[in-house]
């Protein structure tokens, strides 16, 4: 029951990232607004989630993961309800900010699994939950079209409201409170500085394709983000109880895994965001298939299914050849899929096949990244470490989307659609990012069984809680 609640929570959070992507034009019409304003329905959610994911993870480490999980689910549910009833675009954007507070479900889920699950089930549970990140994002794009056409776009929020409200109630009843806590008070200044540099960075990246990378506003936002980031790091190293432990972030097993997460995020989010646009482009433009929202989403369905399936087998495979090897192979496989898409996209089966290859690779990488982070830190740091890892994936997605948007929109055809060369070059760049993730994965340290025993939780009753699959992988 605990695992079911965690899976539903993570799936709901991830679905909310992508459900609105294919229907932004519909929202623009319903609320009689412009495209730039409608885009903030997505941007506001990503900004809010980026800020609250590490903060809620840290609060869970301090005040209790079950308690903060319920609060995160309540925020997702409340935000979904307000969004479903929103009378204006402003209220809808505000509701999306509230929904973003639900980003805490991800680090909290990993923390609860590590604290509560039997040692032989931790690796598999982490892999499945991790794979739901990619599965949920792809599934949201698939479901958006059928739900909107049959029930209306507001049901994109009614259904998550119902599901997350039930999950919150069940979490109160069945999810045990984790005994592992990090003592100390939460400092307010680091939280404000974290929010500041994330907002400046993500707004700058998301608006760069529209305003231009050389725009004074974009340059100003990126410089501001760099300044606040530097101040934030300095403050975190000086406060008595840091929000994010900088010593932890410098651990080889943490920073290397975060670098891979950044690069994998570049490839995954941007490919999911632009493939529907490619599919929906009229074939009269010389490429594309003129697909409807529903049809273009269904073309991504096989990839979403493959992502989930490889997530189920990732833990057993990692126990044999090592999680690091799986991450490197998965990232490289994803890069091959993107290069295939860049070279061959004249037929639907080519796009579907390339997406399956890419999804399989990303699914393998995602399923093992969280496990590597969990193994690299102490139990008290699980929430904040996995929260920052998820946050870095989102930042990577923002970078990839901004770069892809700039490349695709660099040249237009007379009919107003981007030229094919833009998509070809963009997909090739994403393939390069995934191959770079594979190279970065080689730097992830190989963890010995002795080091794992020191890092993973010591249970007073049972002794060291060390996963069998991790020990096997380390020995390999």
UniProtKB/TrEMBL annotation:
The keyword ATP-binding does not apply. Residues 453-476 are annotated as: Disordered. It is a multi-pass membrane protein. Pfam families: MFS_1. It is found in: Cell membrane. The chain crosses the membrane at residues 40-57, 69-87, 93-113, 125-143, 155-175, 187-206, 218-235, 255-278, 298-318, 325-344, 356-378, 390-413, 425-448. It comes from the Bacteria. Residues 1-449 form the Major facilitator superfamily (MFS) profile domain. Residues 465-476 have a biased composition (Basic and acidic residues). InterPro entries: MFS, MFS_dom, MFS_trans_sf. Keywords: Membrane, Transmembrane, Transmembrane helix, Transport. This is MFS transporter. It comes from Aeromicrobium wangtongii.
